[in-house]
């Protein structure tokens, strides 16, 4: 995948594409940002563009070097990650040894260090000596969740490339590219922050079923209280879904929020987009303040469950109180 094809991270893209376009590529970069922000994907895309023989601000995807990269056959790319809890000095020494060999296929050599903050002090100091005397055709890409946790002397010798948490629509785009169904992905990106967390939710057994149950429970809680109690008992607490009651309540919060979105004319923000027809007919049955209270009750039920209250009792009491607001 090319830099341009990656979702979000416009600032990081500008920094890297300017370097490629101008030919002023730094000898070392520090990609810093939260989990799921796409640092590794960007590192791969940048490395591919650096190897590309077509020139320009991105990889062409067609030259021999691009094709080799896509097939995992680029010997001039080295990726280092922690062995156990840390990156050790022997790993850095092995890397430096590899980079000292001449490669007749390409002049450029690139190494990516994952979780660079996990380097031992000895490993960091060994890398520092390497950064202080950079070889012209060697590019380092250091990845970290927290740039401030990297040794200050290393930070000062790298170009800082910041990564922001991905916006929901950017994560939606990426999940769609990975083949995640739109309705499932849309719920996940509003439940979690970070692509990895979203993937974990979409891969949970029964998540699609949970979403359907929440739709029914959400409708019943607003219009048919008795049916809501029965839905909770039979479809949640008498099934394996009962073990995920907190996730169910988080989805329910999104359901009530959708009512407010529709009232406010923000249909593009609606999570349960397959239920817009029902929402359009029933959302004005309560005020926005009432839906806010419903959301608060769902969040409170989740807190009670975490405080070891029976999930079924917490949900049933929530449903009773929703009738009163």
TrEMBL record:
Annotated PANTHER family: DNA POLYMERASE III SUBUNIT DELTA (PTHR11669:SF8), REPLICATION FACTOR C / DNA POLYMERASE III GAMMA-TAU SUBUNIT (PTHR11669)
For this entry, list what GO says about its biological process.
DNA-templated DNA replication
Q: Name one Pfam family in it.
A: DNA_pol3_delta2
Q: Which organism is it from?
A: Paenibacillus baekrokdamisoli
Q: Which InterPro entries match?
A: DNA_pol_HolB (IPR004622), DNA_Rep/Repair_Clamp_Loader (IPR050238), P-loop_NTPase (IPR027417)
Q: What Gene3D superfamilies does the record point to?
A: P-loop containing nucleotide triphosphate hydrolases
Descriptive protein name? DNA polymerase III subunit delta
What GO molecular function annotation could you give as one example from this UniProt entry?
3'-5' exonuclease activity
